[in-house]
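Tokens as discussed.
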């Protein structure tokens, strides 16, 4: 068993999660970090984390699309 985001998953579930797109994983990670900041009542930090995760995920999504375009050429 592995622990991811304070939840218990079996190995096959972790493997499925690892096969998710990078942009999704980045958003998930940012959301988890923001929730921790909210627990600490650090609302500004939570907001900053979410904004950065959104920006990073968008960039990863665009890069993924560029890679698919290059493969199709």
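Sequence:
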């Amino acid at each position: 068993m592995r622990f991811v985001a304070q939840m218990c998953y079996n190995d096959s579930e972790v493997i499925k999660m690892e096969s998710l797109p990078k942009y999704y994983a980045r958003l998930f990670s940012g959301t988890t970090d923001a929730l921790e900041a909210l627990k600490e009542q650090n609302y500004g930090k939570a907001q900053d984390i979410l904004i950065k995760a959104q920006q990073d995920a968008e960039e990863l999504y665009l890069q993924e699309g560029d890679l698919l375009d290059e493969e199709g050429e």
